[in-house]
Input
Amino acid sequence: MKLLVLIIYFLILIGIGLYCRKHATDVNGFVLGGRSVGPWLTAFAYGTSYFSAVVFVGYAGQFGWKYGLAATWAGIGNAAIGSLLAWVVLGRRTRIMTQHLNSATMPQFFQERFGSPALKIGASIIIFIFLIPYTASLYNGLSRLFGMAFNIDYSWCIIIMAILTAIYVIAGGYMATAINDFIQGIIMLFGIVTIIAAVLISKGGFMAALDGLARVTDETVSTTPGVFASMFGPDPLNLMFVVILTSLGTWGLPQMVQKFYAIKDEESVRKGTIISTLFALVIAGGSYFLGGFGRLFSDQIDIEANGYDSIIPTMLSNLSPILIALVVILVLSASMSTLSSLVLASSSTLTIDLIKDNIIKNMSEKKQLLYIRVLVVIFIAISAILALIQYKSSVTFIAQLMGVSWGALAGAFLAPFMYSLHWKSISKASCWVCFIFSSVLMVANIFFRSSFPAIIQSPINCGAVAMLAGFIIVPVVSLFTKKPDEKLVEEAFACYNVKTVVKQKTSLAD
Output
């Protein structure tokens, strides 16, 4: 029964990919869906790209164990900052300016906004380097779940997931990804609610589970009674860094911001904001809330031997076979949707921003599409190989790998991109300083972690610092470096001044 459900799910994904081939006949259609994607598809594409096995298995397990129910704040932050504020601050302006500048990728945006091909190449290299380890981390959360549900080797799980994702992305591009994301999002919503209810019922219901959690003690963490069932948990400061990294990080991730490029119209922005926020509240809030009860299963969990990634699978191991199948499809859906978004962002960036014009002059539309598709295969293959190597060498901490990638990418791009949409005086030099600072900081954190101050030795905390530092670096460097070309800036911002006719319910007449 479990295997049959999985096969039907796989066939649906492939069918959608083949159906969407008509939308992927040119670069604009393949990468952005022709900039005509409605609110539901865009909101679900944003949400499913946001949350993967990294969140459901890695982060929910690790932070639920460390902070108890207070870990739910990370999910609330994901909804309020990572979704609601991201759409309000970036959504409309990103859609308007990227279309005006005719940019399909984040590096291309930087080139057109600042008239700097070098800036485009620099941004492309950062994306290429740091998206790869992130893609590898997406597979990890599936290993124990697949073993628990089907008793098959994890290597087969990696291969199947990689092949299926490659098929529907290559066939249908962004539109296939968006439609599949919508279906996967529905599965995730239904799945997380059902699983939380089943786990709590297994512990006697919500009140009984809460009472049990309040009785849990761990003197190595805190001597305060009931701390794991409290509002802010045993370590509010480090919890705050988790909220910052996982919530603010989406503002600077290329695969997330690119969703705003493709949205259809004003109505889609408004609806998409609400849908995306509610989706994040249920999925992220639910995942961290579930992880918060992890210590109720401490008699079955050995963190030293199996790592934090074993917590959520252990919590789910005693569910009925049909619920375990639902869990596997939920996490598989979350991971495949994120993987497809990442490889599409990586392959389009490498083709449009590095290969085109720099390596191959006068690159035709047909050749660009071919290169993007070939690179999709290459990136998926690399991510699968890295995941296999990681699995064989027993590296189990998903959160660390993701933390480095998120910190470097969001730290490099968040502040320069946001300021570029809102502030005319930002300088090209400030972008370079932000790019270099965040990349060097996160690489140094990998190799020289023990030399860092204790508070930022964790890649989570270090990534959060990289993001926040950008908000200071960009305006300060802009004040003391060469001002941008006034004509170039005015041309970029002219798109905001274009007059458009709207209904009076949207804007009062003079």
Summary: The CA atoms of residues 393 and 469 lie 34 Å apart. The mean pLDDT is 85.
